[in-house]
Here is the input.
Amino acid sequence: MEERLISSSSSKSFFLFWAIMVLHFLLKASSNPEGDALITLKRNLKDPNNVLQDWDATLPNPCTWFHVTCNQHNSVIAVDLGNQDLSGTLVSQLGDLSNLQYLELYNNSITGKIPEELGNLANLVSLDLYLNNISGTIPNTLGKLQKLHFLRLNNNTLSGRIPVSLSNVSTLQVLDLSNNNLEGDVPVNGSFSSFTYVNYQNNPHLQPPKIIPPPPSPASSGSQNTGVIAGGVAAGAALLFAAPAIALAYWRKRKPLDHFDHVFDVPGEEHPEIHLSLPKRFSWRELLVATDKFSNKNIIGRGGFGKVYKGRLADGTLVAVKRLREERTQGGELQFQIEVEMISMAVHRNLLRLRGFCVTYTERLLVYPYMANGSVASFLRERSESDPPLEWPIRKNIALGSARGLAYLHDHCDPKIIHRDVKAANIFLDEEFEAVVGHFGVAKLMDYKDTHATTAVRGTVGHIAPEYLSRGKCSEKTDVFGYGVMLLELINGHNAIELGCLANDDDLILYDWVKGLVKDKKLATLVDAELTGKYDFDEVEQLIQVALLCTQWSPMKRPKMSEVVRMLEGDGLAEKWEQWKMHHLNAKWIELDSTERFEGEELPGPR
Here is the structure.
């Protein structure tokens, strides 16, 4: 009997032990170091606008959170929290994001030090911590980041010396340490990329490097001078590697660039290499003359970002000059200039190339090629009676071309560019009526004007995604929503507000109205009457299906622009449309929408 009790007790202990082990294994398996790291960051930040409210510790996979981007393997590759009015401190656990490529925390009120553990982020491409209140020294460990292209720590209160290790990061393209309290000598050993932009300005205790070439040694010096010569050669070589970056910084400090004439190799779809020049810096006088002093008769477009003028340069070239509406405040020119350079490197046949720019104390202007056929919006709604309407094959091609351009901005630009104002007025037509997406990146450029406050929502009424309008959450899915609305404009000919009025019901939004037309099989009523029946109904139906997929209330349910391209090319639309119908086209299809909306949320006040 006693043996049986002992055996029973041992058996229970054995099973209890294994139960604990299995539970421990399951808990460990369900945890995610990347999610844990971001939750730790959230707990160390003050978030007055609740932009981190969906960072949920009970959902360890952060790939569904706003402001977090993951790759196809569900690894975090980007954390974009710039301009979010955050305060608090950074955490060492950020070093656990082993696949992170972009860490964007600029223009907040973050304090404390830069964690040394950021040096563990071997895949980091961009570290943007500028315009905060970060103190302490620059960690020497950042010199280990051998894939780093952009390091912007300007406008903080950093002190101490610049780590020598930074000069060994050969991939750097932009290094901005201006407006801090750094001291000592600027390191000159190692080498920066020949395209590096370096800025050390406004550090009162920082000594610029003194480049003094070694004196020539007489030929008769003999062997006793061998050591001196070798030392001189070594020093000269080090200075030679560092000289391009130092000279560029000194030159830019003394004289604004008239022209960026570096040449980059940028991969293209049809051409393996496209050689291009960075944008020209135009003088104010050049553009004043080109536009006849910005005469009203030369206005060819206007919108929330400013007016666009037709201009003719001295060599006879026609250009479109966009005059940003907001006046410049002191500072920010450097950042504007850098972002112009980055945006100009987005090269694709369906993107409008940025030809140049102009910055003065009170003005910011962007110069583009002139598009002879204007915008899609102007051709749809402002053409003269003598001009024929856009034929259906052209509209279909515009849909595909603009989708390709947006997909390039999202998936092939480094860093990615979110347009934030996708609409027919920003899709232009070249001589062959090929769609060219224009004014991308303008919203980001405008944001850098204000160095202390989060900017308001950018975009056009009727095209703004609900999560962006209500919570200020902007992502590539914001552009997908705008694209979907643009498709409806393209099909119908009216703008988004006019389309909404056609619904004739204040309780229905545009999405619900179009969905009702699908349910009632009345899609023909949506097609532009000016086409006079000359269109392929199946193709119209497919474009409307894509538009509804793109304008779903939840950003998670919208396709990526790359998926939109594939659907327009004939791959995957049928499957996604069947899934959409299963969820939406039932007895209570309108009521289902209300469950997707952000109930109980109010529009934010000025930020």
Summary: Residues 2-30 form the longest helix (29 residues). The CA atoms of residues 217 and 224 lie 11 Å apart. The chain has a mean pLDDT of 74.
